[in-house]
Amino acid sequence: MNSATAATTTPDPDPSDNTDTAQVGVTALADLMVTKFASPAGPVPAGTPIVYTFYVDNLGPSTASGVAFADAVTSNGNFVINSITTDRPATCTPATPTAPANSRTVDCALTGNLEPQSAGTGRWTITVTITANSAQTLNNIATVESTTPDPDPSNNEDELNRDVTDLADLAIVKNGPALPVAAGTNTVFTMVVTNNGPSAATNVVMGDDLPAGLNYVSAVASGGGVCALVPTNRVECAWGSIPAAGVRTVTLIVNVDANYPAGVIHNTGTVNSRHAGPQPLEQRGSAGPRRRPRGRSRDRQVRHPRPGRRRQPPDLPAPRHEPRPERGAERGRVRHAAAADDVRQRHYGQRHVRSRRRPEPRGLHDRLDAAGSDPPGHDHGAGGSEHAAGGDQQHRHRAERGARLQPAEQHGQ
Question: Where are the domains of the chain?
């Protein structure tokens, strides 16, 4: 209610109308919204917990009172609610963990009020964990309501489905005779097939390929299994279904060939189902000892060049092309400076090797000597030439690495 009054210093002949009162009604409104998520993403293997997370948000503008949350879960198979938790004080049912059922409803009532987002977080979080041990489809519908009027009820419900697939972990253990077997006699093998779940295994087949020297006599399977000898000397036993934690036994009798040599008989059994198990290594059982390799296996290490240290090929000197000598000049003179320094490059993996072919000293000296004595100013370079005394003088020419013979046109010019 709101009152207004008017006053003045001038005398008012009728003060009864100087005051007026108006009443305005105020209504609280709280727009609640529910959103849900599930992890992991589907389809989910049987036995894997599914975590549902629900967010109840108050979009305002007013505080919401008497907030209640409900989650109806239905399925075409049985499931278990493992836990229900909230981040605010609340009362939730049913008690967890629940007994297996194909329909459950989670109810939670918030103890206090839920403020709008403008006055705080405005969010209430509920977490529900569900586990299903068989193939099914979980249908999940969440709703939220409050005693405070909601201006937009269209966002008060959210629905999510999650598929669950069967998963059966089969294992087999095979036992052979404890004492040595005499050739020409019968012996017994026992196979124990176990379904470690979590789902029932359907169309289960146990196979045993008899090695050469073992002859089939009979096979009997427990739990309604049917055994038979199939081509290539293979024994198979089949069951329509083995429930989770179910155990089946096969007793196999074989005859050892009379001419079987002394030694060890290796016989392996396998088990498979339409629903593959998460640990396929357990689905093979052997009655014989494992054979160790004779040699030790070593991993060959391959070395790679380290970055920045790779050896690069050396730079080769570019050949110098000198002008051709005039007609009539000595043909034996060296025209190309690289003729006396033959550079070859050989590539071996990451290494590059330069090799120089040293010129034949006598041949080169004879060429220069045939053209006459050394011209004035001729310089043999660091290698030079040496003359040895005694007897007939023999000229020996030494060419060091990197030395070059100068063309005849540059001598004495």
Answer: 30-165, 169-286
